[in-house]
């Protein structure tokens, strides 16, 4: 009897311990509420009422379906968040309407308009050169900003690959721990596993296979293995292409690394790849096309005319071979910059003619050769494109965040710790402990009475 | 639904952050008066704003071109007026020396007056604006006519005149063909005509005087015609400037509707955001104040 009473006291005290553990971890991320599963100890013979109580298991309140759903939503949200963050830097680089490349374009063309009013004026010619240089610098700076945005994304991508590898290693180690102690005794490890998987799903879209023994296998991209049991197959960043940007390589289970860059579309890595390889190059192309169009149209006119000395006109800007890299390369012809006489305003050998200056000023109202948009419209299109991409990323991210929020609330409702509930548990185990202690006392007194009979 | 400790805090923290964000945005709109700070605030609006700024820059450039054109046309108009006066004076002066009974001394005086008028006309046609000759066609660095040892040069400019764009598809002359005014289809320019006329008056050559007076009449007609063309340009310029001025007012209004915040609306949003933020703060301070724990003795 006393043994039964002592086991019961232990069991109730264990309940109190678990409640204490729940309260202690009320703010621990990833902690799932624990509860004790008691079972009756069966009687040894038909005349025995039973052997008391046993602690059968420590149960964690998990929400596997919600966790899986969260892992599905997280990469999309994280990807859009990354795109929005990266584009906000590019948006800043674009400058405000009326004080960016649009203003530099307008001022450049309008100084040619001013030159047409006084075609032989050295001051007006100097102004044209200065505004040409201002325009070139504005193009150069923005092209540089685009390149640094790409480089930043690339650096962050390399960091993220390192984080994926660290998390994969942690998950493999957890797999090892869970397998060795058994899934029922690995609640803490399972909490950590869920935390690691959640962190991983923010970095990339990973496929998770849950095994019966509580371990997980992970694959990335087009099914390339990342973690299988206790084995980790690291991702690596291999510099490639003219700019030396990182390609994401997966060893997988094969010996030849597999390029999975184009298969990772979600998470921070997916977002960075999208910004670095698709969005920014697209903006760069639009900017290059604009710079090339402006330069070519101006040069065609200056070559058709004559300078202030009546000699055949030369290019005002250095003519790039093609649109690629034009925004980075645009510069005023150094010969012209050094000699205002070489600025072309005249369509005849008479220096006072202003037909070319007027024609260049009028370029701002006409479509760039070979296109259907004016220079300012082409710039407005670029501003619109960046704005729309950033706005879309923000909106998509907000909508995914709503879902994630609801899922996290749902998860917390299942797995979280409630103060009222734990207080009730405290009372419950306290009262049970008191009752069992009373039982112990009564049993002890009963035995004492019996022993008294023997003594008398 | 189970209410758990951490979500209660997280939910209200998030609500508090959102309210603070809305409040900051409302404060920014009210303090800057701008609705769009980055293209993603309103991509279409940002693109329209770029276009509208370019329209204004263009209109401003046209306005400044119009000002420059106005100075030139006014100057050219004044020159024409002076030339008309000089030619009128030359006509009456020449006619006063017509007839065989005019004494030699009077004829010499008249001849000298005509030479002075010639010099005045020469000065008129060689007028410069900001260092450039107005009446040399496109050869703005070369004087239309020069005089050396009493001999007037041939026209040194060209017939290719310049124009300034003062509006979309509108332009006015900025230089003029001096020979078209002084010579036209005549065999000699009016400056040589005046030299010859002075000689004819001095020598009493009546046929020469008649021919000279007729040439002066034709020069007068050419000058008044040129002045009329300048007058047309001035009228065109006035019309265009007025159009540009109203176009700019329209553009400023459009830009304002794109970029500027509706202040009444923004102020109301600010007040709403402020209330929401205070409510979130108050809610935060009430979490977990009471629980079953309070009743465990």
In brief:
The complex is a heterodimer of chains A (456) and B (297). Chain A is an alpha+beta fold. Chain A is built from eleven helices and nine strands.
Element layout with pairings:
The complex is a heterodimer of chains A (456) and B (297).
Chain A: H1 2-24, E1 34-41, E2 52-60, H2 64-94, H3 101-117, H4 122-181, H5 187-203, E3 206-210, E4 216-220, E5 224-228, E6 231-232, E7 235-240, E8 245-250, E9 258-259, H6 267-304, H7 326-329, H8 334-338, H9 355-362, H10 375-415, H11 419-455
Antiparallel strand pairs in A: 1-2, 3-4, 4-5, 5-6, 7-8, 8-9
Chain B: H1 5-32, H2 43-96, H3 104-125, E1 128-129, E2 132-133, E3 147-148, E4 151-152, E5 163-167, E6 170-173, H4 178-182, H5 190-203, H6 206-259, H7 263-286
Antiparallel strand pairs in B: 1-2, 3-4, 5-6
Helix pairs in contact in B: 1-7, 2-3, 2-6, 3-5, 5-6
Helix content of chain A: 55-70%
* Amino- and carboxy-terminal Cα gap of chain A: 23 Å
Q: What characterizes the major β-sheet of chain B?
A: 2 strands, antiparallel
Number of domains of chain A: 2
- In order across it, which strands form the biggest sheet of chain A? 3-4-5-6
Name the CATH class of the domain at 74-254 in chain B. Mainly Alpha
Structural class computed from helices and strand pairing of chain A: alpha+beta
Can you identify the CATH superfamily of the domain at 74-254 in chain B? f41 fragment of flagellin, N-terminal domain
CATH architecture of the domain at 74-254 in chain B: Up-down Bundle
Percent helix of chain B: 55-70%
Structural class estimated from helices and strands of chain B: mainly alpha
Uncertain runs of chain B:
none
Spell the H/E element sequence of chain B: HHHEEEEEEHHHH
**Average pLDDT number of chain B:** 91
| Biggest protein-protein contact in the assembly | A-B, 66 and 61 residues
Radius of gyration of chain B: 39 Å
């Amino acid at each position: 009897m006393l043994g039964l009473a002592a086991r019961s006291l232990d069991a109730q005290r264990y309940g109190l311990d678990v409640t204490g553990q729940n309260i202690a971890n009320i703010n621990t991320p990833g902690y799932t509420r624990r509860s004790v599963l008691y079972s009756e100890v069966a009687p040894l013979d038909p005349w025995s009422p039973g052997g008391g109580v046993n602690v059968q298991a420590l149960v964690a309140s998990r929400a596997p379906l919600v966790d899986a759903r969260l892992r599905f939503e997280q990469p999309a949200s994280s990807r859009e968040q990354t795109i929005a963050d990266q584009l906000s830097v590019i948006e800043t680089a674009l400058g405000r309407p009326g004080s960016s490349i649009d203003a530099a374009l307008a001022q450049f063309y309008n100084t040619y308009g001013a030159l047409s009013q006084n075609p032989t004026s050295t001051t007006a010619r100097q102004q044209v050169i200065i505004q040409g240089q201002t325009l070139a610098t504005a193009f150069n700076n923005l092209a540089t900003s685009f390149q640094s945005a790409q480089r930043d994304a690339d650096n962050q991508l390399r960091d993220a690959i390192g984080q994926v590898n660290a998390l994969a290693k942690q998950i493999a180690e957890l797999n090892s721990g869970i397998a060795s102690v058994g899934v029922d005794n690995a609640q803490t490890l399972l909490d950590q596993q869920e935390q690691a998987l959640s962190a991983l799903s923010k970095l990339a879209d990973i496929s998770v296979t849950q095994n019966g023994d509580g371990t997980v296998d992970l694959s990335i991209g087009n099914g390339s293995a990342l973690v299988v049991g206790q084995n980790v197959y690291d991702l690596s960043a291999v510099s490639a292409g003219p700019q030396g940007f990182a390609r994401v390589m997966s060893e997988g289970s094969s010996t030849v690394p597999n390029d999975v860059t184009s298969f990772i579309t979600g998470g921070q890595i997916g977002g960075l790849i999208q910004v670095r390889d698709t969005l920014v190059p697209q903006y760069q192309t639009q900017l290059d096309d604009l710079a090339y169009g402006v330069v070519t149209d101006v040069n065609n006119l200056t070559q058709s005319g004559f300078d202030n000395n009546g000699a055949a006109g030369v290019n005002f800007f250095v003519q790039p071979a093609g649109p690629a890299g034009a925004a980075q390369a645009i510069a005023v012809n150094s010969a012209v910059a050094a000699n205002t006489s070489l600025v072309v305003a005249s369509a005849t050998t008479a220096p006072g003619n202003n037909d070319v200056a007027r024609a260049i000023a009028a370029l701002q109202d006409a479509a760039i050769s070979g296109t259907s948009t004016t220079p300012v419209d082409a710039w407005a299109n670029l501003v619109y494109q960046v704005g729309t991409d950033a706005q879309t990323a923000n909106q998509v991210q907000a909508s995914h965040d709503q879902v994630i929020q609801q899922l996290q609330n749902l998860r917390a409702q299942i797995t979280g710790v409630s103060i009222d509930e734990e207080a009730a548990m405290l009372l419950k185990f306290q009262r049970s402990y008191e009752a069992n202690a009373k039982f112990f006392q009564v049993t002890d007194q009963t035995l004492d009475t019996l022993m008294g009979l023997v003594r008398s | 639904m189970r209410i758990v400790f951490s979500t209660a805090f997280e939910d209200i923290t998030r609500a508090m952050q959102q309210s603070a964000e809305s409040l900051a945005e409302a404060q920014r709109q009210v303090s800057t008066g701008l609705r769009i700070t980055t293209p993603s605030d309103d991509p279409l609006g940002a693109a329209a704003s770029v276009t509208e700024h370019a329209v204004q820059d263009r209109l401003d450039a046209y306005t400044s071109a119009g000002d420059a054109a106005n100075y030139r046309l006014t100057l050219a108009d004044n020159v024409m007026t002076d030339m008309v006066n000089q030619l009128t004076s030359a006509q009456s002066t020449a006619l006063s020396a017509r007839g065989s009974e005019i004494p030699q001394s009077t004829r010499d005086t008249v001849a000298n007056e005509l030479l002075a008028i010639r010099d005045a006309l020469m000065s008129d046609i060689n007028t410069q604006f900001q260092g450039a000759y107005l009446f040399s066609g496109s050869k703005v660095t070369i004087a239309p006519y020069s005089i050396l040892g009493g001999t007037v040069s041939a026209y040194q400019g060209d017939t290719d005149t310049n124009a300034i764009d003062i509006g979309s598809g509108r332009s006015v002359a900025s230089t003029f063909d001096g020979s078209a005014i002084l010579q036209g289809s005549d065999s000699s320019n009016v400056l040589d005509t005046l030299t010859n006329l002075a000689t004819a008056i001095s020598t009493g050559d009546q046929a020469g005087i008649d021919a000279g007076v007729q040439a002066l009449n034709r020069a007068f007609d050419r000058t008044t015609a040129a002045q009329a063309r300048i007058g047309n340009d001035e009228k065109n310029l006035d019309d265009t400037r007025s159009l540009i001025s109203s176009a700019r007012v329209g553009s400023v209004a459009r830009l304002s509707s794109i970029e500027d915040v509706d202040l009444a609306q923004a102020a109301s949003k600010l007040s709403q955001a402020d209330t929401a933020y205070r409510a979130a703060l108050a809610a935060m301070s009430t979490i977990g104040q009471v629980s079953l724990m309070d009743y465990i003795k």
